[in-house]
Amino acid sequence: MPCKRILLILLSLSLLVTSCNNKEHVDLILRNAKIYTVNSNFAVMQSAAIRNGKFVAVSSDANINARYTADSVIELKGKFVYPGFIDTHAHFSQYALSLSHINLDTAKTIKNVIDQLSDFQRDNPDMWIVGKNLDASIFYDKEMQICTILNNHFPETPVLIWLSDYNFALINKAFADKLPAEANIKSGIVNQRKAVTASKFIPAPNDSIMAVLLKQAEQNCFNVGITSTTDFGATYNDVQLIDSLQKNGCLQIPVYAVLEPLGENVSKYISKMPYQTDNLKVQSIGISLDDQLTQNLAVMRAPYGNNHNGQLVISADSLLQICRTAYEHGFQMCVNSIGDSATRLTLNTFAKILPIKNDMRWRIEGLHMTVRKDLRILNHYNIIPSIQPLQYQPSKAFIDNNFNRKLLREAFAWKHFLSQDRGIICGSDCPYNQLNPMAVFYAAVKQEKRKMHNKQSQELSTTQALKAMTIWAAYSQFDDKQKGSIEVGKWADFIVTSENITTMYQPNLPNVTIERTYLRGKRVK
C-alpha cells in the first residue's frame, strides 16, 4: 500500500507539472473580481489575463486559472474593475500650467490676497502673477475697490486672478496694457472667454519647467482614474513638447490633441494629414461659436435672460471655411456650440460638407440647447454630442428662472441626444471644472425633474454614463478598437474600486476612491 500511494502521489505531481507547463505564461492575472467589461453585452467577468500591455483573456476564475500562469497575480477579493476613464474634453496643457498658479482658496480677506501675491512677487520679481480659486464673496459689492487695490499694489506687474468657478477673472491695468488693442480687454472683471484670451499672452515657462508640470498633471489624472486625456485648444508648441516627452519616456498618458486653427497649427499640422504615434493623436480641430449660457453669451434664436443674446465668436463663413479645410485634410471637427441658434448653424454647416452616414466622427461640444427637429441631423451625419455634465447644476437656477417651457424642454436634453441612436460623451472641461471623473459621472446621472413642464428628467443611466466615459469616448477619438472596454486585444487600461459605481448610493459617487489605476498593464497609481 505505501508503495502504491507513493506512485499515485508521484503520478499526480507529474500531471500537475505537465498541466502547469502547458499553461500560457502572461504578465498579470486579475482574479476574484467583478470586471465590468463594457463590451457589447456589458458583461461582468471574474478574471483577466494580461500580456505585453494587452488583455489576452477575460473570463471566469476557473477558465483563467486552467489556461494561464503569471509572474504576478492580484487577488481582488470581489472588488470592482472598470475600463480607465477617457476625458474627452479637457485642456491638458492649460491644466498643467494651472498647477503653477497661486492657490488663493484659503484667502479670507482682500488683504490675504494681496499678501499672497506680494510674497510671490518678492520671490519672482520678473514673473507675471497668476492666481486661482479666489472666493468672489471676499469682494462682494467691492469690485472697483479690489481692482483699484491691485492696480496700486502692482502698478507695473501684470496680474490675472481666476475666481473659484473659473467663470470670471480679475485683470489689473498692467496686464491689460500688455494686451494688443485687438484683444479688446480692459482691466477689471472679465468673463471666462476674455480671461482665456488674455492668459494666452502670459509668458510661458521654459520647457523644463513645463515638463515637470505636465508630469504632475499626468499623475493627477492617474490618481483619479483617467487613463487618456484631451488637450483641447492645444498650440503647436504644446503638441511638440508632449510628443517629445512621450517619445523620451517622460510622459506616459495618451493625449488626444484638438488644435486651434491658428498659426503654426495650420502650417505644421492642419495643412497636412493627421499625425499620430502610440500615445498621441493630432487629427482634430476645435473652435467655439459662442459662450456661456448663464452670462447671456450663448447665441439663441431669440433674446433670453435679461433680454440679451450672445454674438458669434467667428462668422458663419469662417466656420464653413474651417470645416471644409478639416474635411479636405482628414481632420475631425469639434465645435463648441452652446445656444440653440449656434448649434443649428453648426449642424447645418456640417450637413453641407459631410456625406450621410460618414465615419468622420465630428462633434458638437458643450451641447446644451438644441431644437428637437435639429437632432435628426446628428443621426444623418453621425455627429457625436459632447457634454460637460458639471455645467448643469450651476446652470439649473438660471434656466428655471429665465426659460419658458419650450426652452426648458430643449435645455440639457441628454436623453433626446441618445434617442438618435448615437453615443454621447462626457468631459470635465478641466481646469475650468474640477479634475474628478467620478464627479462628472455623478453629474451625468443626477438631473432633477424640471417641474415647470413636468417632463421626464434627462439624466443618463449609470450604464450610459460609464459608456460615455469609456467605450463611447474611445469611439469619439478613433480609439474604440484599442481601448474603452476590457476585451481581448485591447490595451489593459483599467481602474479598481471597492464600490460598485453602477449601483451605489449616487450622492457618494464624487467621493469614490480609485484604489488602483493601470495603464497598458502597468500600475500607475
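The above is record 1. Record 2 follows with the same two-line structure.
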Amino acid sequence: MKGYGVSPGVAIGRAVIHWKEQIDIHQEYAEDPERELVRFRTALEFAGEQMEDTHEKILHNITPGESAVFKSHGSMLKDPDFVSRIEGMILDRGVNAEWAVKCVSDSLIQIFESMNNDYMKARSDDVKDISDRVIKLLLQVGGIDLSSLSGPSIIIAGELTPSDISQMDREMTLGMASEKGGRTSHTAILARTLEIPAVMGVKGLMDEVENGDLIIIDGEAGLVLINPDDETVKEYEERLRQYNRFRESLSGIVGLKTETLDGMRVDLEANVASPKDLDDVFNNDGEGIGLYRTEFLYLDSSILPPEEAQFEQYRCVAEAMLDRPVVIRTMDIGGDKKLDYLSIPEEQNPFLGYRAIRLCLDRQEIFKVQLRAILRASAFGNVRILFPMISCLEELRAAKAILEETKEELRSQKIPFDESIQSGIMVEVPSAAIMSDVFARETDFFSIGTNDLIQYTAAVDRGNEKLSHLYSQYHPAVLRLIKTVIDNGREAGIPVGMCGESAGDPKLIPILLGMGLTEFSMNPSSILRSRWIIRNLRKSDLEAPALEALSLGTAEEVEEYCAKLLKSLDPGR
C-alpha cells in the first residue's frame, strides 16, 4: 500500500493495531446489578495496574514532573467519592457499569469545566482520560498501551498524535504506519526525531491489516507491504542490512568539521522537543540546538507547566550543551496543537488564527512565566530566544518589550540571567520574509521555518491530504523567499539559519548552500548524513545551480533538478 514516507528507514515486524475509535455508550438495565458491580471493580483494578505500570516505565524516558499526571490518575481511581458514586448508581438504578461510569464522569467534567480556573478546568481532562480507560476495559475494546508493548512491533493506526508518539516504547517500536498524516505533521517530525521508520496517509490501511500480520515499512518510498512473500522479505532484509551499514559508516565522520571541500564552514544543529532527545543529539554529533520545541512541554501536561518545571527542563538542556547554542522557541501552541486546559476558541482557520506569538501577546501572564524560565536557564549555557510566527514589526516590538519587562523583574529580584541573551524571529510567514530587510534591523538572528512558510506561501493547508500534491518544499516561490531572507540577513550582518524540515532534505542541501545558508537545524538522525553530503561538495560549484533552480517554474522541475544535481556532485552516490 502506498502513502507518504515521512521518516526514512526500513522496518520488518508484526503488526499491532492501535484503535482509537469513538465509543458510543448506551444505557441498559442490568438483570444482575451485583455482577455489574464486579465488572466495574475488576476494570477499576486493571486500570489502576495499567496506570502504575505506565508511571514506572515512563519515568525512564521523561522527568518525574512530566509523569506525575499518570500517578495522579492512579490516585483518582481510588478516590472514594468517585468510586462510591459509580457503585451507588449501579446498585440503586440497576444500570450497566459503563453507563454509570459515563454519567458520573460527565457530571464531574461539567463541574470542572464551569469553573473559572485553568487548573480546575484541566481536571476535566483527567476525568476524561480515566473514564475512557475504565470504559474500554469494561467493553474490552480500544487502544493498546503504547508504552508497554509486549515485543518488537509495527504500530498500525488510523491516526497517530504527537502524544501517542511521545508515549511509545522506543525499544519495541520498529516502525509505524497510519491512514492519516503527512510529512510535515508534528507526528511525522517526532517520528524522524526518534528515528522510527514511518509511512502516513495510507488510505484503507486499517481495513487491510490484522494484528500479527507481517509488515514491511519502507520509509523512503512510502510503502507498507502486508504479508509479503519470502523473496520480498529477503530483499528488504538485505536493504535493512545495507541501511544499517550506511548508518554505521557515518560514525567515521563524528567529530569532524562540517565544511565544504573549499572551506565553507557550516553549523549543523538539532531540533529537539525535550531533554530526552539529548542522547540523540550527542550520538549524532549535533553542533548545538537550533530549535527547542517547547510546546511539547505543554502538550504533555494536564495543566500549564509552572515556571520551575520549565526552568529545570531548559537548564538541563543548556548545561548539557555547554557553550554550544541552544535556541529555545517560545510556545507555539494553536493550529494543530491545542491544549484542552487553555480554552482556545474554535476557529474556522486555526492556522491563520489565535496561535503562537499572537496567543502569547494576548496571554502575557503565560508568556512571562515561560520567558522567566528561559532567562533563568540562560545563566547556565548559551541560550537564545526565538519568537514564532512573527508577521509584522508591531508583534516583534511587543514581544521584545515583554522580554525587557521580564528581565527587569528578574533584576529587581536579583535572579541571574545572561544580560546579553539574543532574541530572534522565525521567518515562516511570507510578510516576514518579504520585509526581512526591515526585521533584520530589529532582531539578532533569523531562523527560517519552512514548514509553515510553504503552506502560507502556497495557500495549502499542510494537513489537508487532498492538497498534499500542492505542498512542496521545492516550490519556486518558497525558494525565492528563502533566498531573499538569506540575502537580507547577510546584508544586515545577522546570522540566518533554517530549522524547518527542508533543512534536512539531502536534495535541497546543495541548493541552500549555493544560496549562502550556513546554519542548518534538523532532526538529529539527519545530521551525520547531511555532514557527509556537505563534506563532499564545493560551495563554488553550487552558486550557479542555485540560481538555475530559482529560475525554474514548477516544484516538480525543481525537485528533479535538485536530485540530478546531488547525484552529479556527490561521489558516494
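The chain has three domains: 4-19+149-248, 33-139, 254-569.
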